[in-house]
Amino acid sequence: MTTTTSRSTGGRPVVPSSSVLRPLGLDEVRITGGFWADRQETNRVATLAHIEHWLEKEGWLGNFDAAVEGRLPAARRGREFSDSEVYKLLEAMAWELGRRPDGELDARFDAIVRRVAAVQEPDGYLSTMFGRPGQGDRYSDLEWGHELYCYGHLIQAAVARARTGGDQLLVDVARRAADHVCAVFGPDGRQGICGHAEIEVALAELSRVTGERRYLDQAALFVERHGNGTLRDIEFGRSYFQDDQPVREATVFRGHAVRANYLAAGALDVAADTGDRDLLRAVATQWQNTVARRTYLTGGQGSHHQDEAFGEDFVLPPDRAYAETCAGIGSIMTSWRLLLATGEARYSDLVERTLFNVVATSPAHDGTSFYYTNTLHQRVPGAVAPADVASVRASSSLRAPWFEVSCCPPNVARTFASLAAYFATVDEDGLQVHQYADAQIRTALPDGTPVEVDVHTDFPDSGVVVLRVLRDTGRDWSLRVRVPAWSASARLSTGGETWSVEPGTAEVRRTFLAGDEVRLELDVSPRVVTADDRIDAVRGCVAVERGPEVLCAESLDQTVDDVAELVVDPSLPLREEQGLVIATGRRSAPTDRAWPYAESPRTDRDGQGGGSGPADELLDVVLTPYHDWANRGPSTMRIWLPTT
Amino acid sequence: MTTTTSRSTGGRPVVPSSSVLRPLGLDEVRITGGFWADRQETNRVATLAHIEHWLEKEGWLGNFDAAVEGRLPAARRGREFSDSEVYKLLEAMAWELGRRPDGELDARFDAIVRRVAAVQEPDGYLSTMFGRPGQGDRYSDLEWGHELYCYGHLIQAAVARARTGGDQLLVDVARRAADHVCAVFGPDGRQGICGHAEIEVALAELSRVTGERRYLDQAALFVERHGNGTLRDIEFGRSYFQDDQPVREATVFRGHAVRANYLAAGALDVAADTGDRDLLRAVATQWQNTVARRTYLTGGQGSHHQDEAFGEDFVLPPDRAYAETCAGIGSIMTSWRLLLATGEARYSDLVERTLFNVVATSPAHDGTSFYYTNTLHQRVPGAVAPADVASVRASSSLRAPWFEVSCCPPNVARTFASLAAYFATVDEDGLQVHQYADAQIRTALPDGTPVEVDVHTDFPDSGVVVLRVLRDTGRDWSLRVRVPAWSASARLSTGGETWSVEPGTAEVRRTFLAGDEVRLELDVSPRVVTADDRIDAVRGCVAVERGPEVLCAESLDQTVDDVAELVVDPSLPLREEQGLVIATGRRSAPTDRAWPYAESPRTDRDGQGGGSGPADELLDVVLTPYHDWANRGPSTMRIWLPTT
Fold it and tell me: Which of B597, B599, B612, B637 to probe the A interface (max A CBs under 10 A)?
């Protein structure tokens, strides 16, 4: 296993001090067109301003002004963690500024930072929720208070700012907050942790930005304090905030799905920077079991509405999927770190699945409304969410512009703004491309060899990806591409040669010359998938995928009114027509019965039992990408379709 | 439709002033042996004292003393509705005293009543939670404060006392509380309702006990105020407390399943006493749709953990079933009232199903631990609940002795103590027997004709029920028996004649002589049942029932370690051996895969896909009554079994 020492190249959310692969930053990878470029543009022109508008409208930004003006707690609005949404917007803006300088956006960023900075107390404490007369004491409610969680997002915003340039006020604020945290919660301080992991990952990255080892040490302390009964017990159980088992001893993610992933990401950062292979292995095992047993087809994680938590193994109901957008983002954070630490393609497979089917599903096409939860089955047409009122999290509505708990919109924004940083890496051997989009890659190998590659593709519509080398290099190097597990077959060709490649990583090694092309052909033909028998909730059903996209049947595209009437015949081939995937099925017309359970061999006694089977006549079942659903008004939808 | 005017006969929880059937009370029906007599005896000797012990231990009884001694709110313990658990214990004790006089129990009852009564304020207000300095103002939180809910249980306890005799202090307390409620919330008073329905059903019954019409009018007011946005909105939505739609306009039960049923029961009481056929029809429609689309095979209701609520139609996951014990009891309350109002056997069918499979499932065999929720599928062996600490509601433990929210144990206790009152009715035409147990029925028809019948049966083990008339009567009358919908065939015989009867109601009419016997033979042979296709969560599965009992496979009885390994072949016959029902199946040995979804036609690529089918060798799948499960230590269990 080779290890690359990190360089200070900017524009990267995650910069482990040692890793198998070195991540490339926003100044090294630029997405120039296609699926993700469209979403980045919408994020830039619509989402950032939308979020800022709602933060003002709901008074969550105003809380900072109220603090300065002595109007707290009376004037405070929003939940205990509302400060963090402001910080996530700052982080999104910072990455966006790293992607593309913009004086007006920079001024808005600075204006918000000044409002935040004004609230910081001399000792570094910063919260609009605690510590004033009439408020709870500082750190009086570590289980639910979210103070350290808020610092975490503050610090992540500062890290983004530090790595993308511009005024450093936010970095100074974050350092003071981090110093304060180390003073209060250090080795000799209070043996506490936050009920919502996040500070860990943030302190580790701040340590990388600043070179301050004690921030990393503090992150490690917080990681290790989990699982020792550090927090009070709560109704959801101690697993809710991963205080049930030490991180090193757990075998699967459990409890609140966002908390679980954020903690895992933090543990991986600590493992990377301390060379702790045991900790890395523990989290890798948890990831593996979670992916094998607790993850939806979409990559979504978390099947409990009650506690936004992972269910037990194989409890993955499509119609009560929680699959919180933020849990998807947390999963990407975790998978990305595991990729950097190991170089294994399976981690990027999950990143791709989660990006296309969770993160891309959350925002509406116009970027101003969002799903907080991402159900896999909508039984009743959703209502149009109120335009001017924050919605509840898991409402049965279409996407909503804002939520009372609104972690997801700014989380999507920061992810889209920094997305290119998750696409490619280098090591001493060469360049690795993990995600596919029209892109420009301009970097150098650790020995200084400049590498310039353009990527041309219509992915995911097409499976053809052409990587064009723009510059001669004096040495041979390896261009590695990920062959996704979903591609039934794949071919790689260059210099007139073509060969089959297996899922995992495929490689072309040569002394590349300007103009050399490597062409990857993935099989994006639609495919029928079935689930492990132990996922009881989808027994007897199939789903259809195409390339990285999970497809769904939305009622608006069907010849029946409700997707509940669709039954698919998986023995008949899928067709592609005019950009749509079409399965063949039949119409099921279930009979309403007084009691929905019927005796099996002796049916239809007294109006009970029976229910007619599917009709004989074949019908088309039109399938479209799941991430596109619910953009045309109320509808019913299902990913898993019963078979005949 | 005939209508019987109610008489003041005691020992009945529900005495509509007019109804098609007149309920018989505890002084008219006595359960003398068998399944339910055993549970009544356990309730008497173990459960009542167990509940009293925990009410003392947790300080919920002590709250009343603390109120008198001026130690509130500092000394208050328990949740905002803890007073109600004390009242439910009183109600259970009162019914038990009506069932069987017991000086020691009567003294305990009186002692508790005195502690409660001492807290009542001069204007009738009574709460340990609100109204004192440092507490919330009276009725300042109708959404969650539960003050009126607590009065409801206080009044129901008083009604039980009034109808079973003994000291009347509690009745006086309840009247003062009811007068206070009328004064505060009357037509010209505050237009509020309680966030948890219960006061409605209680005031209606108090009106029947006291003859005070205004209690009924107040109940009607509360019923009608639902659905007008009377309460503030909450995250779970206004449907949570049935404030989303007027009772007359709703078409199905929705929101919190206990609240929904309690409100329905109250509305039916109002409908009965005001002759409001529209209101009766509205609730009957809601019941019908709820039973057809939102009820588990067990009779359990409520599929959401988050808000203890009904899910959308056909969302009935076995492994995330909530099926709260109290919701089952509420369902029985509603069904019983619908039976009295209409005489239709389907209501008693649901009462029977819910009694055997929800209410009987909640307590352990020894009557000192309980299920709050009643899952239909236990995937991971439950832990032994702590013996000395109140458990959370939906823990993954075996039954627990007590809960932080402990509504279910005393609710089971009051139901068991009054159970005989749900077994038989009379009308001008004769006697109706709705539930089967060894029992003595001693009553009179409305014209005074004495009717004395003994019931002999080994139900539910046997389907043979013999009804023996003990007394000549000078007139002919009709003995009607319910033929449950589950009985594939049934025969009735008397006087040497035998005839087949259909599910519903079967009748023998004659001038009975002492010693006449009517013999009902129900088919309790085990039967395989399937679910409506729209209940996606159990597609491809079957369940097995026997008589009124839903059966389950518990791991302790199987030759495999975990019920997840069982697959049933429904084409092979069920067998009965030594009291066990045995299905034939195969062992499924699912393959662990890195990703639990596999491409359908091209499986087993790279270790993904595939998974072996069930083994060839046949094995026995041992099925036992669901209500018996989890009495022998940790196990896995499932009611719905996948088929080959």
Answer: B597
Q: Tens digit of pLDDT for each residue in A296-319?
A: 999 999 999 999 999 999 999 999
Beta-ladder partners of A519: A466, A493
Mean pLDDT of chain A: 94
Structure tokens at B321: 């079933």
Rg of chain B over CA atoms, in angstroms? 25
Distance of CA B637 to the CA centre of its chain: 22
3-class SS at B619?
A: strand
SS3 A389: coil
- CA dist A473 → A380, A444, B537 (Å): 59, 10, 58
Q: Give me the count of residues in chain B.
A: 644
Which residue in the set B393, B504, B530 is minimally distant from A598, CB to CB? B530
Query: Interior CA angle at B194 toward B190 and B200, to 5°?
Result: 95
Nearest to B292 among A320, A528, A592 (CB): A592
| Residue A465 dihedral angles phi and psi, to the nearest 5° | -125, 120
Q: Which residues 6+ apart lie within 8 Å of B90 measured at CB?
A: B109, B112, B113, B116, B157, B160, B161, B170
Start-to-end CA distance of chain B, whole Å, equals 50
Backbone angles phi, psi at B284, to 5 degrees: -65, -40
Do β-strands A580-587 and A18-19 pair in parallel, antiparallel, or remain unpaired?
A: unpaired
pLDDT tens per residue, range A316-332: 999 999 999 999 999 99
Helix B82-99 / helix B103-117 crossing angle, nearest 10 deg: 150
pLDDT in tens, A45-102: 999 999 999 999 999 999 999 999 999 999 999 999 999 999 999 999 999 999 999 9
What percent of chain B clears pLDDT 70, i.e. is strictly above it?
96
Cβ within 8 Å of residue B45, ≥6 positions away: B367
Q: How far is CA B237 from CA A112, A303, A380, A396, B36, in A?
A: 34, 20, 16, 10, 39
- Predicted local confidence at residue A167, as pLDDT: 85
- Measure the CA–CA gap between B221 and B267, rounded to whole angstroms: 10
The 3-class SS string of A592-619 reads CCCCCEEECCCCCCCCCCCCCCCCCCEE
- Specify the 3-state DSSP secondary structure of A201: helix
Cβ-contact A517, A469 below 8 angstroms? yes
User: Which residues make Cβ contacts (< 8 Å) with residue B164, sequence separation at least 6?
Assistant: B10, B11, B26, B94, B95, B97, B98
Cβ-contact A88, A413 below 8 angstroms: yes
Strand partners, A106: none
Pairing mode, strands B438-444 and A29-33: unpaired
Nearest to B540 among A540, A564, A599 (CB): A540
A421 pairs with which residues across the strands? Answer: none
Q: Which of residues 97-136 of B touch A (CB under 8 A)?
A: none
Contact A244, A254 (CB under 8 A): yes
DSSP-derived secondary structure for A496-513:
TEEEE--SEEEEEEE---
Q: How far is CA B619 from the centre of its chain?
A: 36
Element (H, E) at B555: none
CA dihedral A269, A275, A278, A280 (to 10 degrees): 30
Instruction: Please name the amino acid found at residue A31.
Output: I
Q: What is the largest CA-CA distance in chain A?
A: 85
Residue B6 in contact with residue B208, Cβ under 8 Å?
yes
Bridge partners of residue A498, in order along the sequence: A493
Task: Give the bridge partners for A499, in sequence order.
Answer: A492
Least Cα separation, residue B422 to chain A (angstroms): 22
Q: Rounded distance, CA A367 to CA A354, Å?
A: 18
Strand, helix or coil for residue A423? coil
Could you tell me the domains of chain B?
22-422 (1.50.10), 425-523 (2.60.40), 526-593+614-642 (no CATH)
Q: What is the reported pTM?
A: 0.94
